[in-house]
fumarylacetoacetase
Amino acid sequence: MSQVSFTRSWVESANGHTDFPLQNLPLGIFSMAGGAPRSGVAIGDRVFDLQAALQAGLFDGAAGEAVTAMENGQLNAFFDLGRTPRVALRERLLELLREDSPLREKIQAEGETLLPPAADCQMHLPAKINDYTDFYVGIEHAQNVGKLFRPDNPLLPNYKYVPIGYHGRASTVRPSGTDVRRPNGQTLPAGQTEPTFGPCARLDYELELGIWIGKGNALGEPIAVGDAAEHIAGFCLLNDWSARDIQAWEYQPLGPFLSKSFLTSVSPWVVTAEALEPFRRPQPARPEGDPQPLPYLLDKRDQAGGAFDIELEVLLLTEAMREQNLPAHRLTLSNTQYMYWTVAQMVAHHSVNGCQLQAGDLFGSGTLSGPESGQFGSLLEITEGGKKAIELASGEVRKFLEDGDEIILRARCRGEAGASIGFGECRGKILPAR
Amino acid sequence: MSQVSFTRSWVESANGHTDFPLQNLPLGIFSMAGGAPRSGVAIGDRVFDLQAALQAGLFDGAAGEAVTAMENGQLNAFFDLGRTPRVALRERLLELLREDSPLREKIQAEGETLLPPAADCQMHLPAKINDYTDFYVGIEHAQNVGKLFRPDNPLLPNYKYVPIGYHGRASTVRPSGTDVRRPNGQTLPAGQTEPTFGPCARLDYELELGIWIGKGNALGEPIAVGDAAEHIAGFCLLNDWSARDIQAWEYQPLGPFLSKSFLTSVSPWVVTAEALEPFRRPQPARPEGDPQPLPYLLDKRDQAGGAFDIELEVLLLTEAMREQNLPAHRLTLSNTQYMYWTVAQMVAHHSVNGCQLQAGDLFGSGTLSGPESGQFGSLLEITEGGKKAIELASGEVRKFLEDGDEIILRARCRGEAGASIGFGECRGKILPAR
């Protein structure tokens, strides 16, 4: 783990209050009015256009190879290159964009060609997602939800042995800003034995960390927990929108299906493992009596530095709040430290049966709630399954999401003055059901 | 529904005992020694090379459009064209390959160029699979498995309302002939409270119908049950290999995960909806007391002809049986008539929440068992969860699959003399765990 230090950039907006100082350099796919999607790096309030910079001769060697792999407007092939070209690209970007860069004038001479304002850029999914897997490693969430069903025995017997996960729907993952159409579906009204069909009445968010898989593995060849870092390209925020009433009726015996597959939102910037390096932490000690992970999930380096200290926040903005110019209401302030399993353990578990992971696969962590009120990562937990209403400054109350409500996820890694980094936002607004 | 009739082909092997008479014309992707994957049609013991036939000027209009869409060695773009070009291609193929075809000599003049022996062709997956969904519509299987856990109440309350399904792993679907590496994983030994890690000891097959999705839908726009036919490209056999011991320990609360994701095998030929038209049947009458489907799942034409009469067979061939030249042992003889929901209902349900389906998505029906002994579509059912051993002519016994065992799925639609069609095989042999 390196120290959190701050290096100034000649891009002035990168030196103030921003998610994207020089230390971050997250990768993404953007387009400008009418243009084709292309790769870029967020820096302050600008996007550094990697394709244009390659054409301007600013990259060669491994960094050039990295940018060349992005030429089809997707990061998959770049992800598949593994760690070395990614690190080379980062080092070259630090060189190009730091305050005393010898290339500053050359870049600035191109005007906005190489550094368009982020406000003019439309963000896309960073990669073609082949498979999306949603885990359940937020132990506080598992306990909170378990309590609603089994007050005396909230955690199932496998929880502390198995990094529980399930296959999600890849086709409906969309970037931040995509509206959320309220789904229709079957639900079982309280006290009834026959379901009805109609709009979801218990629409919820789930606060998750997203993980982009880098280099894949061959079918039948597991990834060891100690080798997982080579297979992890980066991170994002993920909102696993959930229709609780549809879920309750459909999920036995094979798990959630239509209650989750109408939309999954991700923040569009891929925050790299390198940017997060200073915010790595040892895995929180397991409470006394908890079992040790089985050997295939155990790695000393992972135990020592496989967790992250990332602050996670959820905000709610209703139609009335927007009209009254009220600030967004904070629903959740949580942290990635509530993950019971590390990302390396998730990768090792997922592939231990020989399952093939591919570059551009997406993992969700599962909802990351803390143990305290104010730290709960879903309305299901905050309102105790719809029993307790949330009061808003607009005079409104909420148990679940209403049409017009917008949910905003944010994340922040806190370093010394100026050295904090963020993830950008993951937003979505609810549209009425069809 | 049309009558089952038989038209002779000038390809002689198509007129005898074959899965692929002129009435079938299934589509697939094949390659020959060192060549690139290309599209073809199975006819008798030959493969009609569509790309080569296009170059020879044998297709124009909508049929030409259909073959042109296959030029990248995948059927996705062709699937996405919907029904009309597929029907045009079928009509043209019937014209080209029937006994009195005016083009017979032109085609034969090319020798084996247009009609290589199937034995020389390696088959590939017909499409890039974006998402794979496994349903659970085999009600006899659901009851048989339910009885093992809940003898008095085998079916859960949602079963007769919801076409139950879950997201599967797309990256590990492979064509027939791919070996099955026995997976390692966590299992809970009987009577223990802590799991162990090692090779699966209860490896099983599951006999399923596979469905290839044709034209996709936009996010948020459900497909009506009456429109589903436009979105279904064709059918195959599917073996949902299952690690029962891993499944039992991992599946609560989010469903099967690693117990299914090590491999899923499919037969490589896409049997079209048109070829299956004569084998359509009314949906079996729901037993007295069963609820009517909710309106979004109900369509008169689907009720009248949305089911299929397809005979399904599973054979086992062990290493010792191969050495002793014994014939394969039939484990299962079942039928698609045991589907409680039609394929159109599966499509309508899957998309009713706005979930986007894409051309090349794969559905599994779920295990299709019949009610009688001899009709069970998995060893879990046949051996009652490993209690009753199967005796083989080789003197061996089986409760679950052993290394070296090969499972072969076959399917047959029985018409009048000569007018039966088959699906080809879906085979897989078990390799020892790593």
DSSP finds twelve helices and 26 strands in chain B. Chain B touches chain A through 63 residues (CB under 8 Å). The longest strand of chain B covers residues 232-239.
